[in-house]
Design goal:
There is one protein chain. The protein is an alpha/beta fold. It has a single domain, classed as Alpha/Beta hydrolase fold, catalytic domain (Rossmann fold, 3-Layer(aba) Sandwich). An eight-stranded mixed beta sheet has the order 1-2-4-3-5-6-7-8, with helices on both faces. Helix 6 packs across helix 10. The longest helix is centred in the last third of the chain and has 17 residues.
């Protein structure tokens, strides 16, 4: 395993050879599955299982993401001795879409995401005899996971929340943003429309991206969406933004119900979510005597798990070390 970890530091130098060789071979071993979630929406997920593994990591991706984007992370975790299960949240990836326009970011109720993730837990993790159970979540997926962790129906040895979406920055004062969101919520033609300043998906050039410094990983992710239009999700709707902001507030209110040890990774160059909300979460947990370790990944942008080798290796090492201390 240590030899495998050493390769994390130099992978970008020969990324194409890795992606079309060992990674492609690994990806072809995947099992793609489906269950019916809330309101009869099909929920897709992928799993990598080995009879030799006694540990599992459930991965909860961020907004617009699909498990199709996550082969490299699955590869690394699997080769460190973990079974890996990755969900496609409703309204994105290969899971069922919710609007006539399938490319708008939308959810009826944020708790629907949580119910789906809990159903996957009961289906794939609770029914298997794993000695250790972990969850690794990014951005929106981390907000979903935080709410899941407040429920008594799930049991994880530890959780890693990577750049969690606990607050969303607005390009205006919050009181004004709330006035707009509440106004849009009352109008059927607006609540399902793209939120101000957003729109249809388009391939943003690497030079103006604000999520990663890794050209190789960014181009690979972009290629998935460019090659398969069914994976695309554009900007969020007004209703999605409102639901997500309310979810962040609910997480802070219910944080003390979380019993699993938490590792929260922050991106130093964050611009997608609010680091201040993450720090407030850590403060609430600390004051309640709950275990919450916080670590800043120096120089990283929002997609820490898709960052340049050094930053990504730093994050992965911290996650796996944290998990190994909670068995």
């Amino acid at each position: 395993m240590e030899q495998h970890k050493q390769r994390w530091l130099t992978r970008e130098h020969a990324f194409a050879a890795f992606a079309t060789g060992p990674l492609l071979d690994f990806w072809q071993r995947r099992e793609e599955c489906e269950f019916i979630g809330v309101d009869n929406i099909p929920i897709r997920y992928v799993r990598f299982l080995s009879a030799q593994h006694s540990k599992v990591i459930l991965i909860s991706p961020g907004r617009i993401e699909s498990y199709v984007k996550y082969p490299e992370l699955a590869y690394d975790l699997f080769h460190c001795g973990y079974d890996v299960i990755i969900i496609d949240h409703r309204g994105q990836g290969r899971s069922g879409r919710l609007l006539a326009d399938p490319y708008r970011g939308y959810v009826d109720d944020f708790e629907d995401y949580v119910d789906d993730l809990e159903q996957l837990y009961q289906r794939e993790i609770a029914t298997r005899h794993y000695r250790h159970r972990y969850v690794l979540a990014h951005s929106m997926g981390a907000a979903i996971t935080a709410l899941l962790l407040t429920r008594q129906s799930v049991s994880f040895d530890a959780a890693a929340l990577v750049a969690p979406m606990l607050g969303i920055p607005f390009p205006m004062p919050s009181w004004m943003a709330w006035r707009i969101l509440n106004w849009a919520e009352k109008r059927a033609d607006m609540r399902e429309s793209y939120a101000m300043g957003t729109g249809k998906w388009y391939p943003r050039p690497f030079a103006i991206n604000h999520v990663t410094h890794s050209r190789e990983r960014y181009r690979r992710s972009l290629r998935f969406y460019a090659d398969d239009p069914t994976l695309r999700v554009g900007g969020p709707t007004y209703h999605w933004v409102r639901e997500s902001v309310l979810a962040g507030q609910k997480i802070l209110y219910q944080a003390t119900d979380i019993t699993a040890p938490i590792l929260l990774l922050q991106a130093e160059e964050e611009s997608v979510v609010e680091n201040s909300a993450q720090e407030l979460f850590g403060k609430v947990m600390s004051e309640a005597g709950k275990p919450c370790d916080m670590k800043m990944i120096a120089g990283a942008r929002h997609e820490i798990l898709f960052e340049s080798d050094n930053m990504r290796a730093n994050a992965l090492s911290a996650i796996l070390s944290f998990f190994s201390h909670h068995r």
